[in-house]
Amino acid sequence: MPLDPQAKMLIDQLNALGSPPMNTLTPAEARQAMLQMTAMRPPGDEVASVENRKVPGPLGDIPVRIYTPAGKKPLPVLVYYHGGGWVIGDLETHDGTCRLIANGSGVIVVSVDYRLAPEHKFPAAAEDCYAATKWVAANAASFGGDPSRLGVGGDSAGGNLAAVVSLMARDRGGPEIKFQLLIYPVTNAAFDEPSYVENAEGYFLTRDSMIWFWNHYQSSLADKRNPYAWPLQAKDVHRLPPALVITAEYDPLRDEGEAYARRLADAGVPTTLSRYDGMIHGFFSMSLLLDKGRAAVKEASDAVRAALR
Q1: Is CB count within 10 Å lower at the N or C end of the chain?
Q2: Catalytic site includes residue 128
């Protein structure tokens, strides 16, 4: 279908700002630009409790933020990994999203501030996210969580990390994950899929920016074959948690997200694939501006609640 009118208006407004393309910036400049965009948003929803902690990681402490909604404890827990191409993003940029999911689903959301590339290349982000998830499983009771009802989720690069942590947990003997929420996830390193050709530029996320992210994240060309970098490369996707995969029509990542959903379903993993026609990459985090963003947040929150409660 045509580009959604609300999405078109948003893109026109962004274009009018005249900001340089992401792939022309340094990582530091890109991070600052994302923080400036975040500062322009209104405050996020009130949550019953928000707590910052630090948990042990492979090479030092990992900051996390725990969003606890109202409700009788212990509550299920969703560990959330932010998007940003493994290069940008942090607890602040996704604060509003985590608040919406916590309130909408009625589960505790633990947001993970993993190490970023290029200072910390693959597999640093993946190992941090796995370590934080193990900590949550072992210590959920300390913040009112139920470790027997544990899910993972994320958007874009965070969706990649949620899929990767699910693979790691299966391969490494735990923790047991009950659900994975994959929001327009990065699952492959092929930049010639139809969605990359059709949506190479003009729809917020560009092909050149994705190549820029990948070049900062990769440690070597061998990473292209590593399933902990690119889940679509996994030889075996059996025995993984049930999944909701959300994609957007005008998104370079559309095809690889949908290909991963099909692989999961073909392997017998209960999987729901939900494409939002007329939408662009990032629409889930733009729910204050996009009706379909609000609908996607509700779908995700309902799925998390159903899977974990």
Answers
A1: N
A2: no
